[in-house]
């Protein structure tokens, strides 16, 4: 039975061997490690991950894809190397209930693009964070996250607060069936931790960050309602805009206020 792709679930199935290889290479899969896959679809990426010896927990929202996945990966399910959950990946307690607290895990996925922002927020802020995330995202979103144009954004700093993002490769739209209207990129976020929040509160940090980016063209001091001298005193340019600041600068401001 052929299953038609549902646009509402962001279903663009990956059909490029080269892209699949680059995704799993970037994830540096080690035998027996736990990988959480979001939206396994018809299982092309799942097959690669299992082939490299990972233990895969996959969460798929489309009921129609569950039975075919159970048939394709019957042996892996029996051998307890593959656990398939029908559900919404944004409901994080569901997949996490299968990952022992003391075990580290990676997320490797071709996620539906409409959940990118929510996905990053939901998983990066968890107490039980993944150690690495390797995902396909819209090319422009990946470029904004790494600040390719050297201009930081609320999105880029929100990701860099937890890890180190890098673009692994571009993936043209023709690599998917059906082809989406945009090109994609493989984004890897490595060294994920809450190290940044040892000395500053996560809540204060994000509340300040949102204020700082509220009006992009205004000076940072205006957005934050502080004197430009306050910025000078902590070694920052008094006429800086939010987009000029790196993650460490934001931490300095939070610590100084
Ligand atoms: N991994 C497959 C591939 O690379 O061919 C499918 C990728 S497709 C872009 C996204 C998949 O995520 C679809 O199978 C879709 O049904 C599923 N999906 C969409 N929203 C989801 C959600 N909130 N939670 C879990 N899966 C979701």
TrEMBL record:
User: Which reaction is the catalytic activity of this chain?
Assistant: adenosine(1518)/adenosine(1519) in 16S rRNA + 4 S-adenosyl-L-methionine = N(6)-dimethyladenosine(1518)/N(6)-dimethyladenosine(1519) in 16S rRNA + 4 S-adenosyl-L-homocysteine + 4 H(+)
Residue positions annotated to bind S-adenosyl-L-methionine are: 12, 14, 39, 60, 88, 110
PROSITE patterns, sorted: RRNA_A_DIMETH, SAM_RNA_A_N6_MT
Q: Which organism is it from?
A: Candidatus Taylorbacteria bacterium RIFCSPLOWO2_01_FULL_45_15b
| Residue ranges constituting the Ribosomal RNA adenine methylase transferase N-terminal domain according to the UniProt record | 19-193
Listed EC numbers: 2.1.1.182
- Keywords of this protein's UniProt record, alphabetized? Cytoplasm, Methyltransferase, RNA-binding, rRNA processing, S-adenosyl-L-methionine, Transferase
Write down what this protein is called. Ribosomal RNA small subunit methyltransferase A
> In its keyword annotation, does this UniProt entry include Metal-binding?
no
Family of this protein: Belongs to the class I-like SAM-binding methyltransferase superfamily. rRNA adenine N(6)-methyltransferase family. RsmA subfamily.
Kindly indicate whether the keyword rRNA processing belongs to this entry: yes
Question: What's the superkingdom here?
Answer: Bacteria
Give the enzyme's main class according to its UniProt record, as a single word. Answer: transferase
Q: Name one GO cellular component term.
A: cytosol
Protein localization? Cytoplasm
């Amino acid at each position: 039975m052929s299953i038609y792709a549902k646009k509402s679930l962001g279903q663009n199935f990956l059909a490029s061997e080269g892209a699949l290889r680059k995704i799993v290479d970037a994830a540096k899969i080690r035998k027996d490690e736990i990988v959480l896959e979001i939206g396994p679809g018809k299982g092309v990426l799942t097959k690669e991950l299992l082939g490299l010896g990972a233990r895969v927990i996959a969460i798929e929202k489309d009921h129609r894809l569950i039975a075919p996945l159970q048939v394709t990966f019957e042996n892996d399910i029996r051998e307890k190397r593959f656990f398939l959950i029908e559900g919404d990946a944004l409901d994080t307690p569901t997949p996490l209930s299968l990952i022992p607290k003391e075990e580290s895990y990676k997320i490797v996925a071709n996620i539906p693009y409409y959940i990118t922002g929510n996905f990053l927020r939901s998983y990066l802020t968890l107490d039980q964070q993944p150690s690495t995330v390797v995902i396909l995202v819209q090319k422009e979103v990946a470029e904004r996250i790494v600040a390719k144009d050297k201009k930081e954004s609320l999105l880029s700093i929100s990701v860099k607060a937890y890890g180190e993002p890098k673009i692994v490769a571009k993936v043209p739209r023709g690599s998917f069936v059906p082809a989406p209207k945009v090109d994609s990129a493989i984004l890897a976020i490595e060294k994920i931790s809450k190290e940044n929040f040892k000395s500053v509160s996560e809540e204060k940090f994000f509340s300040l960050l949102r204020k700082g980016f509220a009006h992009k063209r205004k000076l940072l001091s205006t957005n934050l309602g502080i004197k430009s001298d306050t910025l000078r005193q902590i070694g920052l340019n008094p006429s800086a805009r939010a987009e000029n600041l790196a993650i460490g600068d934001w931490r300095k401001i939070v610590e100084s206020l």
